[in-house]
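Q: Could you fold this chain for me?
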Amino acid sequence: MPGRRPVVFFIDDDLDALEMYEIGLSNDGFLPVITRDALSAASQADAIRPDIVVTGMHLRGATGLNVIEALKRAAPVSGIPVVLLTGYSDPTIDRRAHELGCAAILMKPCTPDELGQVLRQVLTTS
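A: Sure. Below is the predicted structure, expressed as structure tokens.
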């Protein structure tokens, strides 16, 4: 994607994490768009049309699985790859995320550099 910064739509309810990833991903050549509003993530993604979506697992009013499901049901954005960022190691969550079409699952703590590497890999293979 020479000359164009990939747009990353990042959903999490932790403001400190959002700010850290926003700065780190910006410095790594991405254009992050952040939100704490998981309930309107699909409509926001439709308006933003990001290249990739990153969502936390435990969000205010929803889970990352709810977000993935809503995105995959929304026709205009259903093909956008989604990465789940979670602090919980749970095979049930991992299995369900993959069933819903999640492209990758990363465990917290995860540095912005590590996330950037995974995002590039997913964007290359999607």
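A (continued): The mean pLDDT is 94.
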